[in-house]
Amino acid sequence: MTHPPTAIASHRGGAFLWPENSLTAFRETARLKLEQAECDVHATADGEVVVLHDTTLERTTDGVGAVSALTAAQLRRLRVKGCRGEAPPMLDDMLGALAESVVVPRIEIKADAHGRPYHGLVPRVIGALDRKGMRRSAWIIAFDAQVAAEAAGAGGLAGVAWLLERVTWSGLGVRGTIAVAKAYGFPEIGVQEAQLDPEACAALRAAGIRISVWGANHESSIRRMLGLGVDVLTTDDPPLAIALRDKG
Q1: What is the mean pLDDT of the segment spanning 38-66?
Q2: Between the N and C ends of the chain, which has fewer C-beta atoms within 10 Å?
């Protein structure tokens, strides 16, 4: 059986080229010949869904403190570093940037500042997808297996991926990872590209589990992941990944 070509996802909208998780990044991604736009989401103090990677504001915005301490209205008064006056987008904004394209969302649901899941965040994310009519095309991804399981249990998504930190991947091993994925019914697991080798890839394939990677940001790592035939390659440099995939 011929395996489908590797899908490419812009990591945080393409962080090498545009300010990460910005509306600019997602608008530019929507113009590219790729399949998915990856983003990260947190809950605001008033229960909205904001697109930011960190639990705190300082690195990527002109704000300070915890993301979850501010309301959506307060976050809209902040500015993303490197953008021309853009506020951190709400998930509705990000989805709107993709709405007229074939690019689908790949939404990573983050934990709070204490590493705990946000109460009610999964249904809020799915609600945003439903408002845009994008639930059936969207992927939800998470490091927390319970969060990923909650998303999978909601149904109607294109898929759910369970992400593994290096220590989790190393501790479980491939057999343990497969066992957990099967127990939860996860169709896909995601790992950092440097952790994936041909043997692990083959074992996951044999178990019927899809494989996604992040961290493939330069020619050597992108070529290696394309050579392994991973299902989804999430990259900070999507135009490079597209060019290398097109070369075959």
Answers
A1: 98
A2: N
